[in-house]
Design brief:
By secondary structure, the protein is of the alpha/beta class. It has 2 domains: 208 residues, 3-Layer(aba) Sandwich (Rossmann fold), CATH 3.40.50; 96 residues, no CATH class. A 6-stranded mixed β-sheet has the order 5-6-7-3-8-9, with helices on both faces. Helix 3 packs across helix 4 and helix 10 crosses helix 11. The longest helix has 16 residues. It is elongated and about 70 Å long. The structure holds adenosine-5'-triphosphate. Adenosine-5'-triphosphate binds next to helix 1.
Length: 312
């Protein structure tokens, strides 16, 4: 289990991570979503003992990473697939890992097989690997010590569609066997397909935290109009959040009835009006990160990590 409590990281005057709290329960995959610079990597680096926090705690199975007796046996970490020595072969990287962790050498072959790196690939130098191969090797390295927790920063980066499908299955199976996974990504549909819970971060602060179903059910109304600007202004004037989607629709934190009434009152012609449940995580992500990036005072956005309904 991962427990992050009131975690803050300041770099000079900039607050990269601002009072972040969330938990990743045993047997679940938690998707950690946010735009560039949101604070995902910093949070994960603190969790893995690579960066110190300004305040707050980040615990794995009740301990800070650095206090774990043999961390690689408790938590598998993949923060940067390109961090391996380019001159070593994949097999050498894993062999060194077994030596550091005190594991039997056959673990190397098992992990190579698990991640689909054949003999030829295993004996190539990492400098000649594609990014997808590096991700597979990184995952093999993370899983080497048979840990109960996985912390993965953008592991789907560079994988082809077959690779993404494969990784999704691997992580699902790992969680179903009782593992805990924290997985960051910009690939929203990838996260939507595999995660049980979602934590969305924007500007260092938690913008949403809940089960995937909770978050998708709370996605409001999707509306398309011939003159969307007029409708958007009217809805904003009534205190609603309005987020334009990439394809010209509006996502509104209101019921379809309220949006329909606003359209009628402004004489706006609608071409579509429905609950946004099926609009997908991408639209929700846009909506949430837009509000997180707005100039809200510190702590104004879901400071207590209450479920999604309370954020709105
Ligand atoms: N060592 C550092 N020194 C100064 N600022 C930093 C440092 N590391 C991160 N930051 C800043 O902290 C903020 C959060 O960065 P972080 O890398 O955690 O975001 P992220 O969500 O992982 O984004 P990305 O997906 O682009 O990696 C950014 O504004 C970044 O510039």
């Amino acid at each position: 289990m991962i427990e992050i409590e009131n975690l803050t990281k300041r770099y000079g005057t900039q607050t990269a991570v601002d009072a972040v709290s969330f938990r990743c329960e045993t047997g679940t995959v938690t998707g950690f979503l946010g735009p560039n610079g949101a604070g995902k990597s910093t949070t994960m680096r603190i969790l893995c003992g690579l960066t110190s926090a300004s305040s707050g705690t980040a615990l794995i199975d009740g301990s800070p990473y650095r206090a774990l007796p043999n961390p690689g046996r408790s938590v598998g970490v993949l923060l940067d697939a390109s961090a391996q020595h380019a001159g070593r072969t994949g097999r050498e990287v894993l062999t060194l890992g077994t030596m550091v962790l005190g594991l039997p050498r056959e673990r190397v072959t098992q992990m190579l097989e698990l991640v689909g790196l054949d003999k030829k690939a295993a004996d190539k130098r990492v400098g000649n690997y594609s990014l997808g191969m590096r991700q597979r090797l990184g995952l093999a390295h993370a899983l080497l010590g048979n840990p109960s927790t996985l912390v993965l920063d953008e592991p789907a980066n560079g994988l082809d569609p077959e690779g993404i499908f494969w990784m999704r299955g691997l992580l699902r199976e790992y969680a179903d066997r009782g593992g805990t996974v924290l997985l960051s990504s910009h690939l929203l549909h990838e996260v939507e397909a595999v995660a049980d819970r979602l934590v969305v971060i924007g500007n260092g602060r938690i913008a949403a935290n809940g089960s995937k179903e909770e978050l998708l059910a709370g996605a409001g109304t999707l509306v398309r109009a011939v003159e969307p600007n007029q409708l958007a202004q009217a809805l904003q004037g009534s205190g609603h959040n309005v987020t334009p989607t990439a394809d010209g629709a509006l996502l509104v934190d209101a019921e379809p009835l309220q949006v329909g009434r606003a359209a009628a009152a402004t004489g706006t012609v609608l071409t579509e009006l429905r609950t946004a449940d099926g609009a997908g995580l991408e639209a929700l992500f846009l909506q949430l990160t837009a509000s997180a990036n707005a100039a809200a005072p510190a702590g104004a956005i879901n400071p207590t990590n209450t479920p999604m309904e309370a954020v709105r």
